[in-house]
Amino acid sequence: MELLRSNLARVQIPEPTHRIYKHECCLSFDTPRSEGGLFVDMNSFLAFGKEYVAWNHEKTGNPVYLHIKETPKSVPEDRPLKKPTLLAIGVDGGFGNNETEYEESYSIVILPDFVSLPFPSVELPEKVRIAVDTVLSAVGAERIEQVAAWTAEDKKASEHALTLQQMKSGVVIPPSGWKCAKCDKKENLWLNLTDGMILCGRKNWDGTGGNNHAVEHYKETGYPLAVKLGTITADLEAADVYSYPEDDSVLDPLLAQHLAHFGIDFSSMQKTEMTTAERELDQNTNFDWNRIQESGKELVPVFGPGYTGLVNLGNSCYLAATMQILFSTHSFISRYYSHQSLKLAFETAPADPTLDLNMQLTKLGHGLLSGKYSIPVTEKDAATGDARQEGIPPRMFKSVVAAGHAEFSSMRQQDALDFFLHLLDKVERGNNTRSDLDPTRSFKFGVEEKILCSSGKVSYNKREDCILSLNIPLQEATNKDELEAFNNQKAGQGLEENNMSTDEIVRPRVPLEACLATFASPEQIHDYYSTALKGKTTAIKTTGLTSFPDYLVLHMRKFVMEAGWVPKKLDVYIDVPDVIDISHMRSKGLQPGEELLPDSVPEEVMESAQPVANEEIVTQLVSMGFNQLHCQKAAINTSNAGVEEATNWLFSHMDDPDIDAPISNQTSDVDQSSVDTLISFGFAEEVARKALKASGGDIEKATDWIFNNPNASVSDMDVSSSSSAQTPAESGLLPDGGGRYKLFGIVSHMGTSTHCGHYVAHILKEGRWVIFNDSKVGVSTDPPKDMGYLYFFQRLDN
């Protein structure tokens, strides 16, 4: 006790502003349930596992810790399992309530000798008792940042309920024995409250559910409300009423009256179906990963180093799939695992390691690759009886990498491609002082665009990229005869694909080689200003690569616009070989006999080079129901790349605080603070002003403009740049090698949009394909090589 009293000055009583960690180690994934428990520093309120707490004592000198240990309670074998009744995590009635119950024990530990004192104890100094009580009663920082209790909003009364007109058709609904009026479905049936039609519900992404007859009936008639049969009981508020115009589950205050119109006595009816919310809960708690991929084959779990799953934090599968593949690359393994220890990362981290990207990437790398957290169930405490693969929760990593990003810091589903690019940008910035350690370099390559003017002269524009985004040329499908026969059969028999089994549908098969060829094929540029002709003309652009990266990432652009400019996901297979050769895509640079276009561009042309929204893109987006101003911003911010890119931008920026701000007109002046910011990046003032002028004052776009126009100077505004400077690859900044690559990773997506559905990863490890589906990891018997959204290739040594 005297030892504790002598260290009282190093004990703090937490203030409301303190971040208190008590659920997970800052340097590892140890928790109070780990063998050594968790040690909370009573000065900084950071938590450490038993292996790491001494490091914190060495670094800070803080000697007093609260030791928290959780041990499983014995559970009667006949205890019934509770099923969640609330769409929430970690709250009463929500997810996590079937888990083993634990008993907590506490003690005060004084380092370096791990002297232990019991808690609670009246013999402890009052300051210590108050400090520990405050820590134990506080909500942990992990929980606050996670916002884990993601509770569904209360249902609202429908605006259509009080004015609903019901037809006097004499329809009487029996208490049971229902069937869809348009097919043989006897489950998931909905009663339209206007005309009494009984029709099946929507088809799920995996082929289960109904045949969409209820929603199609609404589209034909406009009758707004339907109630799900089998959910009607004496508790009418629990009945599942859906409003099609409001596109949500609602309350019908007059439901008793509306049901009586069809002869339904709700007081005597029994519940036989799940509500929409309950089905969502059921799908979240029973997400059948065998059904997601591999045709329902039972997959064998795999354990050990490199086979650790990642817990889904709530729509975080995009993060899990991406990180599993990144930590299968030599560059990320070397940077954050094999050549960086946890101790080194901690020693170089700031005072709070939970806020340091390098520390949290190292923590994640060691968690995934060490095998410490990937142990067969038989090696775990038998008292839990838990047969699941537990995985590790990447909460601290997600908090750091998503900081300041409105979308990634939310609990909403995100595009795996967007996250991959965002992460690479963060990692590159974090390694800007040691570019030789930057693992993102292994993904980068040079791109060269050759523009051939009708004058016969050329210009070369060079930039860096880390993905090849490929259009899918359906006209190059290799099974055209089968497709034609299938479409004729559909038309002749009046069949719809949503009424057919997956095996019956014939999908286009497009070779990857055709997608790569489309990327490199010549493209016309209209209204191109030629400095040789001193006017606008049509030019031809061809694209090639100036270097080949260590890891090549291919993005398949599967979302297109169908009739009516409705976004649609292409239902297409891509035939991807195990080995590809892109040697033919290497650009040749300026050739003998080619003459470069002059550099100088008239001032009025320079002024017209400011971003302007493509009217065709804007018109198409507006016809889809988007706001005119939003559409213009989407076109400008995607450099008028196309409707698909603009649509994705809109979905990602709907909640931006400045989304409704008017587009500022370009003037000859630029904001001096923006100029100063670019100067601080190392750019010359003249180049900074020119870049800001060309990009509407946007610093990020201006930075991109400078990198894309390496020869920019006061006298040469690059509308048609004739740059012949060395690319980063030529100056040794980018990796390069041969053009043969081997497929080693696939991120697959299921769902109608990249912002919904589910992502999984397949990775080639130790000569076999392995599926990573959040926390579950297993041997893959049929990897979906033809269904990928992102493909990862590793360059083969010559």
Automatic annotation (TrEMBL):
<dbReference type="InterPro" id="IPR013083">
    <property type="entry name" value="Znf_RING/FYVE/PHD"/>
</dbReference>
<comment type="function">
    <text>Recognizes and hydrolyzes the peptide bond at the C-terminal Gly of ubiquitin. Involved in the processing of poly-ubiquitin precursors as well as that of ubiquitinated proteins.</text>
</comment>
<keyword id="KW-0862">Zinc</keyword>
<feature type="binding site">
    <location>
        <position position="213"/>
    </location>
    <ligand>
        <name>Zn(2+)</name>
    </ligand>
</feature>
<keyword id="KW-0645">Protease</keyword>
<dbReference type="InterPro" id="IPR028889">
    <property type="entry name" value="USP"/>
</dbReference>
<dbReference type="Pfam" id="PF00627">
    <property type="entry name" value="UBA"/>
</dbReference>
<feature type="active site" description="Proton acceptor">
    <location>
        <position position="758"/>
    </location>
</feature>
<comment type="similarity">
    <text>Belongs to the peptidase C19 family.</text>
</comment>
<dbReference type="GO" id="GO:0004843">
    <property type="term" value="F:cysteine-type deubiquitinase activity"/>
</dbReference>
<feature type="binding site">
    <location>
        <position position="200"/>
    </location>
    <ligand>
        <name>Zn(2+)</name>
    </ligand>
</feature>
<feature type="domain" description="UBA">
    <location>
        <begin position="669"/>
        <end position="709"/>
    </location>
</feature>
<keyword id="KW-0863">Zinc-finger</keyword>
<dbReference type="Pfam" id="PF02148">
    <property type="entry name" value="zf-UBP"/>
</dbReference>
<dbReference type="GO" id="GO:0023052">
    <property type="term" value="P:signaling"/>
</dbReference>
<protein>
    <recommendedName>
        <fullName>Ubiquitin carboxyl-terminal hydrolase</fullName>
        <ecNumber>3.4.19.12</ecNumber>
    </recommendedName>
</protein>
<keyword id="KW-0677">Repeat</keyword>
<dbReference type="InterPro" id="IPR041432">
    <property type="entry name" value="UBP13_Znf-UBP_var"/>
</dbReference>
<dbReference type="InterPro" id="IPR016652">
    <property type="entry name" value="Ubiquitinyl_hydrolase"/>
</dbReference>
<keyword id="KW-0833">Ubl conjugation pathway</keyword>
<dbReference type="GO" id="GO:0008270">
    <property type="term" value="F:zinc ion binding"/>
</dbReference>
<dbReference type="InterPro" id="IPR050185">
    <property type="entry name" value="Ub_carboxyl-term_hydrolase"/>
</dbReference>
<dbReference type="GO" id="GO:0016579">
    <property type="term" value="P:protein deubiquitination"/>
</dbReference>
<dbReference type="GO" id="GO:0006508">
    <property type="term" value="P:proteolysis"/>
</dbReference>
<dbReference type="InterPro" id="IPR001394">
    <property type="entry name" value="Peptidase_C19_UCH"/>
</dbReference>
<dbReference type="GO" id="GO:0007154">
    <property type="term" value="P:cell communication"/>
</dbReference>
<feature type="binding site">
    <location>
        <position position="183"/>
    </location>
    <ligand>
        <name>Zn(2+)</name>
    </ligand>
</feature>
<feature type="domain" description="UBP-type">
    <location>
        <begin position="156"/>
        <end position="266"/>
    </location>
</feature>
<dbReference type="InterPro" id="IPR001607">
    <property type="entry name" value="Znf_UBP"/>
</dbReference>
<feature type="domain" description="USP">
    <location>
        <begin position="308"/>
        <end position="796"/>
    </location>
</feature>
<dbReference type="InterPro" id="IPR018200">
    <property type="entry name" value="USP_CS"/>
</dbReference>
<feature type="domain" description="UBA">
    <location>
        <begin position="612"/>
        <end position="653"/>
    </location>
</feature>
<feature type="binding site">
    <location>
        <position position="180"/>
    </location>
    <ligand>
        <name>Zn(2+)</name>
    </ligand>
</feature>
<feature type="active site" description="Nucleophile">
    <location>
        <position position="317"/>
    </location>
</feature>
<keyword id="KW-0479">Metal-binding</keyword>
<dbReference type="InterPro" id="IPR038765">
    <property type="entry name" value="Papain-like_cys_pep_sf"/>
</dbReference>
<dbReference type="Pfam" id="PF00443">
    <property type="entry name" value="UCH"/>
</dbReference>
<dbReference type="InterPro" id="IPR015940">
    <property type="entry name" value="UBA"/>
</dbReference>
<keyword id="KW-0788">Thiol protease</keyword>
<dbReference type="InterPro" id="IPR009060">
    <property type="entry name" value="UBA-like_sf"/>
</dbReference>
<keyword id="KW-0378">Hydrolase</keyword>
<dbReference type="Pfam" id="PF17807">
    <property type="entry name" value="zf-UBP_var"/>
</dbReference>
